[in-house]
Design a protein that fits this description.
Structural class: alpha+beta
Number of strands: 13
Radius of gyration: 33 Å
Helix content: 55-70%
Distance between the termini: 28 Å
Strand order of the largest sheet: 5-6-11-8-10-9
Shape: elongated
Order of helices and strands: HHEEEHEEEHEHEHEEEHEHEHHHHH
Largest sheet: 6 strands, mixed, barrel
């Protein structure tokens, strides 16, 4: 085997310029495949993370209208949900958590002489995990806050800045609809959100839903609620179960979708994920095609080399070399050319990725220093295919040269 490698190196040195020029196509294809695939993968992960900031698995449901189409009956009635309906939904086996979703838009909020218009949300304590509302200071709502209807508030970081400026917020007091609330926590900044409920979460003021019903909305009616299915991809099953249990207590057929509307965030995410995976797949295919074009060039050069070395092949066979030895020699030469070119291309792609990373970082997109597992698998598969295309045909042709015909070319 050592002799084969030495012979391969001698052959590469003898035809160095030819092989370098031919392998440029393979190197360029490997560079494009590495750079575009890794870049698209980084952008895809960034947008997935941004989209899921509203909540990793959220289904919105709300009260609608029950249509009565029986003979002799006309009209419709509105479904009036209560907090107990949300508790029944949360008790379902297919539901991980549920919370009323009370939203008061552009509510005037005062703190001292400052008055700002911000959205106020009334949630249960489960909303912290459901909506990715993580406390940077203080804490989020507790079950005891909700049970007692405590007048406490959790602020988004931008809401905190607008109301308190540089002063400490936790423990401070704010006024919502003439009711005083104590600030118990400030959230971690989410930055620019691609999806949100009303204003971005950084501008949100969260209070217990029991407090919002009693002191802000002055009603017992819950217009809509959120639920988190146990399995994100099975939100449709959770929606059917929720309609069934709510329909039993409000006298409507669960199949009547107008009675309880729903919006599953996973349906939106599936579409967006599919678009990004399709884009990444397109770049992989485009890069692979470029690699294959380069591999065809290497194969053609190797076929020319085989033709030029016909007499050498015949002499080696006459001295006892087997067809397998000839096959391995030419295959190793092609693999060496394709492998070196591919390595240079992958290295160039990684350098290009690092070169553009600062520009993407300014837009909040962190590109990976190395490709992810999906990209690495695609690159490895493409390079193996290139090596086979470039090496097998010339090696087979060289191994099948008859010794007598080869010696006549001397």
């Amino acid at each position: 085997m050592a002799d084969l490698w030495l012979e391969t190196l001698r052959s590469l040195r003898a035809h160095a310029l030819r092989f370098v020029l031919t392998s440029l196509g393979v190197a360029w294809g490997a560079l494009l495949l590495t750079f575009l695939s890794a870049q698209t993968g980084g952008v895809r992960r960034h947008f997935m993370r941004e989209i899921e900031e509203v909540g990793p698995k959220i289904v919105y449901m709300g009260a609608g209208i029950v249509l009565d189409d029986r003979v002799g009956a006309r009209g419709a009635r509105r479904v009036e949900l209560e907090a107990e309906d949300v508790e029944r939904v949360e008790a379902l086996a297919s539901v991980d958590a549920a919370t009323p979703n009370l939203l008061l838009r552009n509510e005037p909020i005062r703190r001292g002489r400052r008055s700002k218009l911000l959205n106020v949300a009334g949630y249960d304590h489960d909303a912290g995990s459901m909506r990715n509302l993580v406390a940077a200071e203080g804490r989020f709502l507790s079950p005891l806050d909700v049970e007692r209807g405590a007048r406490v508030a959790f602020l988004g970081p931008e809401a905190r800045r607008r109301l308190f400026g540089a002063e400490p917020a936790v423990g401070g007091r704010i006024a919502i609809a003439s009711q005083l609330f104590t600030v118990i926590g400030v959230g971690v900044s989410k930055g620019e959100q691609l999806t949100n409920v009303g204003n971005p979460d950084d501008q949100l003021v969260v209070v217990p839903y029991t407090t919002a019903l009693r002191w802000l909305e002055h009603t017992d009616v819950v217009r809509e609620f959120m639920l988190a299915p146990r399995v994100r991809e099975q939100g449709g099953e959770s929606i059917r179960h929720a309609r069934t249990v709510v329909g039993l207590h409000h006298g409507f057929d669960p199949s009547q979708s107008t009675a309880l509307w729903s919006a599953d965030m996973w349906d939106v995410l599936k579409l967006i994920y599919g678009m990004f995976y399709a884009l990444q797949g397109f770049f992989v295919v485009a890069g692979t095609i470029t690699l294959l074009v380069g591999a065809v060039g290497v194969m053609n050069i190797m076929l020319v080399v085989v033709g030029e070395r016909t007499s050498e092949v015949g002499l080696r066979k006459a001295l006892g070399a087997r067809g397998r030895d000839i096959f391995l020699q030419f295959l190793l030469e092609a693999l060496a050319v394709a492998g070196l070119a591919s390595a240079l291309g992958v290295g160039g792609g990684l350098l290009a990725l690092r070169a553009v990373a600062p520009a993407f970082a300014k837009g909040g997109i962190a590109l990976p220093a190395t490709p992810d597992a999906l990209t690495i698998g695609a690159i490895a598969g493409a390079l193996v295919l290139v090596a086979l295309v470039a090496g097998v045909a010339p090696a087979v042709r060289a191994a099948r040269i008859p010794p007598a015909e080869a010696l006549r070319s001397y």
